[in-house]
Amino acid sequence: MLGPFIFAAIAASLLLVGLGLLVRPLKAESALRPVADLNVESLTAKHFRNLAQIRGALTDEDRFFINRRLPEGSAKRLRVERQMALRKYLVGIGEDFACLDRLAREVASLSPRVEHRQETERLVLEVRFRILYRIALFRLGTAGSLPFDAVAHLSGMVGGLSRQVEAMMATLQTLAPEAPTESPSQP
Known about the structure:
By secondary structure, the chain is mainly α. The protein contains 7 helices and no strands. The chain has one domain. The protein has helices at 3-23, 27-31, 51-58, 60-69, 72-110, 116-143, 148-175. Helix 5 runs parallel beside helix 7 (148-175).
């Protein structure tokens, strides 16, 4: 008789924890300054372009090579260093996403006609990124490693948001009135 109630209580608790993690801002979002103090250059993506270097550190061949060639202590130390580098990269990807998302919101607020479809796409991308990002950090913290595909997917999501922001900015620029050109003064 209590079985369904216990199950429902556990399910509700897990749902609340999941929603709390989803709604809780990324660490990088809370570090952003107020809108009035921001410049556009500070909101560009900087980290996601380093994916090629991370790929080399995550390959199975590299792991096997290290285990074969290095003494156990050195191999373990190198694995820990690579895990820390991967964590820094993931945090950097989170920062990139937070900055680009902030920039997308600012551009959308300046646009005279924000398409509902674009805002919905951005919101869905944000939710997906938050979920996958937190899962990746959890897996890295518990398992000590992360498949390259998961890292590449997060990096691709940041790249997609970057392209979306660029398109929004280009559209906004076409809608902006042209600056008056100075006509040559007549003598």
